[in-house]
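Homework help board

Subject: predicted structure for assignment chain

Our instructor gave us this sequence and asked us to write out the predicted structure in token form, then describe one feature. I got the tokens but I'm not sure how to describe them. Can anyone check?
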Amino acid sequence: MRTTRAVTEIVPTHIVREGGGFKVRRPYRMGRVMSPFLLIDEMGPVNYGPGEALGAPWHPHRGFETVTYLLEGRMRHEDSAGNSGELNPGDVQWMTAGRGIIHCEEPQEEFLRTGGKTHGFQIWVNLPSSHKMMEPRYQEVPSSESPVVEQDGVWARVIAGECMGATSSIDTKIPITLIHVRMGTGARLIQQFEPDLNGMIYVFGGEIALENKMQVKVNPMAFGIGAKQQIQDGELALLSEGDEIMIKSKSDSEFLILAGPELNEPIERYGPFVMNTREEIHQALSDYRNGTFLS
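My token output:
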């Protein structure tokens, strides 16, 4: 018999500045709350005037993956492995930093000149110790090749994993589900999960509610919110164990569904480096400073 997941905790968001100073909306306490996701940064939405758009100048990464998903705007990227290109609405960039990569993410030249609206996500996915020093790799999926499915008032782009019969072409080192969903008021979606994966939902528009086939025991909520099953704009919901989630949209809504394994390994993080021990962090800093970071 299938078991239905429920909300066990609501994590609110706050505004922080990243890169060259652009604002992102980020759930509190990411990094040690829900393996394997280290952070979820919602970039914007923000309207830039001519010459105002911001990005992230050259910077290093080691030990994890960055997923950039653009909803609105135009960006360009370049990295030390020789990859370069543009990100346009609906495009996905999945970069595995592995043992080390240096890259920059900036507004596309014409977009910088004219200005416009930018909205998107960057998500950090941790790597298990066995893959932290792997060869860096880069996967880019344009919107035209990103699987999209729509039925009964539900629209979904399958960035990683599977939803409503559509499967992503992204190759992940660990099992990852990452789905962008839009739902009209009153629409319903049942999303299947592998029961051993951690699950969460990040809502960035409207409100949804989780429905249950049976009573599910949940832990007391943080921040004095209580064990509610409604998730609103700007909230990250952590989910109980189970085989599926049953979602009903309380209004026109938009959200991400995420799932991945519990790595159950120590995390040592210093800025753009995410390793397992402090000694590995010191080694990453040393490698970066003495020019052996990419060798």
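Reply (TA_rk): Your tokens look well-formed. For the description, you could write something like this. Residues 215-226 have pLDDT under 50 and may be disordered. That's the kind of observation they're looking for.
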